[in-house]
C-alpha cells in the first residue's frame, strides 16, 4: 500500500491515513521502521506508533529525528510505501516538486 502526505507544519508526530489503519485490520503495531526509498542499505529509523482516543494512528517518537536527518521542510511531499513488515520506504519531494536524492 502507498499513501502520501504533505508537511504543512512542524510537528513531533505524523498522522497516518485512516485507510492504512483499516488495511492493518486489527493489528496495531507499537513500532515501525522508516527508510529512504530506493536504497535498502540505508539506515532504518525506529519510530514509535501511538493511537489517540479517537483511534487515529501517529508516527511519534523517532519521527522528529527522521525529519531532522532528511532536512524535511514545510511543503515537502512524502510518499510512503508499506512493505508489510512494519517498514515504510519513504520518497521525499521538496518544494521544487523534484525528488530529493540523499
TrEMBL record:
Principal localisation: nucleus
Residue ranges annotated for the TF-B3 domain, each copy included: 1-96
Pfam families xrefs: B3 (PF02362)
Any one GO cellular component localisation term in the record: nucleus
Keyword check for Transcription: yes
Keywords: DNA-binding, Nucleus, Transcription, Transcription regulation
Location of this chain's protein in the cell: Nucleus
Source organism, top-level taxon: Eukaryota
Keyword Ribonucleoprotein included in the entry's annotation: no
UniProt-recorded Gene Ontology molecular function terms: DNA binding
Protein name, as recorded: TF-B3 domain-containing protein
Organism: Hordeum vulgare subsp. vulgare (Domesticated barley)
Amino acid at each position: 500500500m502507498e499513501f502520501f502526505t504533505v508537511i504543512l507544519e512542524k510537528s513531533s508526530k505524523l498522522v497516518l491515513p485512516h485507510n492504512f489503519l483499516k488495511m492493518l485490520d486489527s493489528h496495531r503495531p507499537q513500532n515501525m521502521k522508516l527508510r529512504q526509498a530506493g536504497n535498502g542499505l540505508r539506515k532504518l529509523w525506529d519510530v514509535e506508533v501511538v493511537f489517540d482516543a479517537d483511534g487515529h494512528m501517529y508516527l511519534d517518537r523517532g519521527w522528529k529525528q527522521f525529519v531532522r536527518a532528511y532536512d524535511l521542510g514545510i511543503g515537502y511531499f512524502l510518499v510512503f510505501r508499506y512493505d508489510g513488515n512494519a517498514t515504510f520506504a519513504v520518497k521525499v519531494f521538496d518544494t521544487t516538486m523534484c525528488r530529493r536524492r540523499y
